[in-house]
Specification:
The chain has two domains: 11-48, Cytochrome c oxidase, subunit Vb (Cytochrome C Oxidase, Chain F, Sandwich), CATH 2.60.11.10; 49-107, Cytochrome C Oxidase, Chain F, CATH 2.60.11. The chain is built from three helices and five strands, in the order αααβββββ. The protein has helices spanning 8-14, 23-26, 29-39, and strands at residues 61-65, 69-74, 84-89, 94-95, 102-107. The chain has a three-stranded mixed beta sheet, with no helix packed on it. Strands 2-3 form a two-stranded antiparallel ribbon.
């Protein structure tokens, strides 16, 4: 098979003609940065679900925040359709007023 005439850089960037480029080949900018970080196990833009904790005083659910307080919603029970909202302040762990699950505010630095 003879390759069509094209600039040499085109073959390096796009690969052989007729192939389907992968996500890695097509990703640019922020999307590429997020993909590369995910490969290393990082989450620079807080896009992934938080790691589950037991919710006890010794192992509270960690809530990242760039300020000294944040509103938290607790579902309390798996089948519950109502969300219990409350303010979480920097410092000691705090409990959900309904079910008693513990939460703790932790500082979070923005990726930018």
């Amino acid at each position: 098979m003879r390759w069509p005439r094209c600039a040499p850089w085109r073959l390096e960037v796009l690969g052989p003609p007729g192939g389907v480029p992968t996500d890695d080949d097509q990703a640019t900018g922020l999307e590429r940065e997020v993909m590369m970080a995910a490969r290393k196990g990082l989450d620079p833009y807080n896009m992934l679900a938080p790691k589950p904790a037991s919710g006890t005083k010794e192992d509270p659910n960690l809530v990242p925040s760039i300020s000294n307080k944040r509103i938290v919603g607790c579902i309390c029970e798996e089948d519950n359709s109502a969300i219990i909202w409350f303010w979480l302040h920097k410092g000691e762990t705090q409990r959900c007023p309904n079910c008693g699950t513990h939460y703790k505010l932790v500082p979070h630095q923005l990726a930018h």
